[in-house]
Amino acid sequence: MIVVHNALIERGSFRLTADLTVPAGRICAIVGPSGSGKSTLLEAIAGFLPLASGHIRINGEDITVRPPSERPVTLLFQSNNLFPHLDVERNVGLGLKPSLSLTPADRRAIADVLDEVGLADLAARRPAELSGGQRQRAALARVLLRQQPALLLDEPFAALGPALRDEMLALIDALVLQRGIAVLMITHAPEEARRIAHLTALCMEGRIDGARSTDEVFANPGPELAAYLGIGS
Questions:
Q1: 114-148 pLDDT per residue, tens
Q2: Domain end among 147, 165, 180
Q3: Does residue 132 lie in a domain region?
Q4: In a domain, 78, yes or no
Q5: Is 213 strand, coil or helix?
Q6: Which of 147, 180, 199 is the last residue of a domain?
Q7: Close Cβ partners of 69 (under 8 Å, ≥ 6 residues apart)
Q8: What domain count does the chain have?
Q9: pLDDT, tens only, 74-120
Q10: Helix (H) or strand (E) holding 41
Q11: What is the pLDDT of residue 114?
Q12: If we measure between CA atoms, which residue out of 32, 63, 35 comes closest to residue 47?
């Protein structure tokens, strides 16, 4: 579970206030215009930005002042952060051991997760030999291998075409949720929220005031979300 309670995040003159709860095994989409603070929230949860006030808890543990390396959180960005000189197996293995001193047990775990994301036959290939969707599957495999309770998605599939994006959303739905991971997903595409998000939160003008059922949000969007979506109130 991810809990952001009464948080104030400051970056220069920009201020974001946020209250949000994402239960384990649930996906929460964050929607809103560019510059409203969506990525700022993820950076604060990951530990890259300090809170001016408030608390962040993961599975009941207060992580507000922990450094990024000690937070039980993984991130997946549009840039998949794969190293071009490493093959898929070693790129994924970085999620376990940055030294890449992989044991036979590590290699078996990597093989298992590559099989889950549909890359079992591509472990020896380098990123340049993969399609865009395959590179994002490799990045997702590395995330899954870390087995952390919270996953932050910052538009990781925005550069993919509709069919590949739908495949990746299906993978998130099938593989991440069965592990009981709490997921926060930034998206500018309402159909992505409707596709897999159980909850949706509106980020508008530096403010996030909780999340509601995605079905409820889009059935009764309210004036701010309706204006953002261009559907009228």
A1: 998 889 999 999 999 998 888 888 988 998 888 89
A2: 147
A3: yes
A4: no
A5: strand
A6: 147
A7: none
A8: 2
A9: 988 766 678 999 999 999 999 888 888 889 999 999 999 999 888 99
A10: helix 38-46
A11: 93
A12: 63
H or E segment and range at residue 190? helix 190-196
CB 96, CB 102: distance < 8 Å: yes
Q: Which residues are CB-contacts of 12 (< 8 A; sequence separation ≥ 6)?
A: none
The answer to whether residues 145 and 90 touch, using CB atoms and an 8 Å cutoff, is no
- End-to-end CA gap in the chain: 33
Identify residue 221 by its one-letter amino acid code. Answer: P
Q: Are residues 167 and 196 in the same domain?
A: yes
Query: Are 91 and 141 found together in one domain?
Result: yes
Spatial distance between the Cα atoms of 137 and 122, rounded to a whole number of angstroms: 11
Query: Which residues, listed in sequence order, are joined to residue 11 by a DSSP beta bridge?
Result: 14
Q: Identify whether 77 is part of a domain.
A: no
User: Where residue 233 falls among pLDDT bands split at 50, 70, 90?
Assistant: very low
String of b and e for 184-200 (b: at least 16 CB within 10 Å)?
bbbbebbebbebbbbbb
Quote the domain boundaries for residue 123.
Answer: 83-147
Q: Say how far apart CA 193 and CA 86 lie, in whole Å.
A: 33
What kind and span of H or E run contains 210?
none
Question: What would the DSSP string read from start to end of 78-124?
Answer: SS----TTS-HHHHHHTTT-TT----HHHHHHHHHHHHHTT-GGGTT
What are the beta bridge partners of residue 15?
Answer: 10
Is residue 2's pLDDT more than 70?
A: yes
Length of the chain: 233
The reply to whether 158 and 67 lie within a common domain is yes
